[in-house]
Amino acid sequence: MDLAFVQSGLLEKHLESEVISGAEVAALLKRRGVLDGTPVYLDEETQMPVPPVCEFGGYLSTALLDVTTLKDYGRVIGRLDDHLGGLDSDVLSATESDLVSYRNHRTQRQKKPVGGSVWSRESFVLDDFYGFLVDREILTHRPARLAARGRNALAPRVRSGMDIRHLTFEQYRYLRDVGLGGQLPNAQISPTFRGWSPLRDRAGADIALGSGTRWREWATALLPEMGLWPGMPGGAAEFTVQACAKYAEARPIYVPEDPVGSADLFCMLERPDIVRKAARGLERKARDLFVVGDIDVAGGRVRGILDGGVREFEMSAMDAKLRRITVFEGEFGLETLTLFVCRGGLIPGADAWKGYRHRAWTRMNALADETTPLLPARRWRWHDLRHTYALRLLTYLENMMDGEAPDLQARRRRHRSYLTGHIRHNPLLIVSRRLGHSSPETTYEYLQYTDDLINEFEAAFSGWIGDDESSYADIASHAISAAKGGR
């Protein structure tokens, strides 16, 4: 089978047919609830849809998955079918041995085998796919049997824990200032640095660390959400994230004053030049953009023209795709409403941010000398900053509860006590809520790291982001206040 994905915007632009127009097809897809990114499977010879498998694509679309997830799930079925083609089989006639062969290919025999976490996701999609076919009576039974205790035979044999990777203070400052910021290890400016927007990249790192949010949450933040809008008082920012959050679960985000200041510096020194150069290009694409004319900061809503009609959205309900095309009339013309911007004038995508950190990692290693802190064994990830935030805040809150008695057994007793008797003020649960974990069990994974002496500091995050006496106590007190029901 050949794999394609629904892209309604391209249909409207390029579909030429005497039977139906591209706009009519796009309207039909919208009325049927078929989202962009929905996988479509085509017969290789006739290029006609393969109905049973395409039905699964429609089923995924009704689950309201985002575009990236829809495409990832669609590729899983496409990869399976490609492998089965070499076995003279296909996804509708596969046997258990065929699926086991595919599992072994993915996890052992291919040029770069996937790890347990990747295969875990793929086995989940395959199980969901064949369960769908059985529920629709397309197949009479699943190809793979259920093993002992209802376990899927294709599931990973070893359950891996969370890959918690965090940075020390020295590692973070070296990453931010040398890797992303273009400095030399001695804090001098490097005359050979060719980074295009170091203040933007530094601001991204500071916000990721200071807020503990996931990449999709901090990288898609809007200027009004960050308090960087005319008439707003400045300082720390607090807003609600939902559409860009994992599982679309709403929760408040708190960004301390220092990360906001880092973003403000980017807005003053680098952002104007970027948006000025990109304004003309955005003007040519205005019909495909959401041009905002009214921004209600207090109400957290925006109103403007989208697809030729007037639309109004709550900011927290704007997903990443909509945020990417949201612009307003600025000093130089159309300008993106998101904080971060790249050369094209819109928000940098996942590949762009990946490139920023890859180049930073190369630079960090190239400039390493005797003064360089011990670098991590593996290339850092943006998500490492979220893990660092969690460990810092958890350790800080625990130390506040402990006072001056760092007794290991007392710490163990305290964890059990707080989990049962002090739910609202338990450091673990406070951090769990701040991170947006669906279960405290996920946050519990961090406890094994809080007794690691390499991560103990008298004042968590002291001097990490700001250049003066910045402390993470502000974040901790804000988290405690929120747990008590205050602002």
TrEMBL record:
Domain of life: Bacteria
Keyword annotations of the record: DNA recombination
InterPro entries: DNA_brk_join_enz, Integrase-like_cat_sf
Protein name as catalogued: Phage integrase family protein
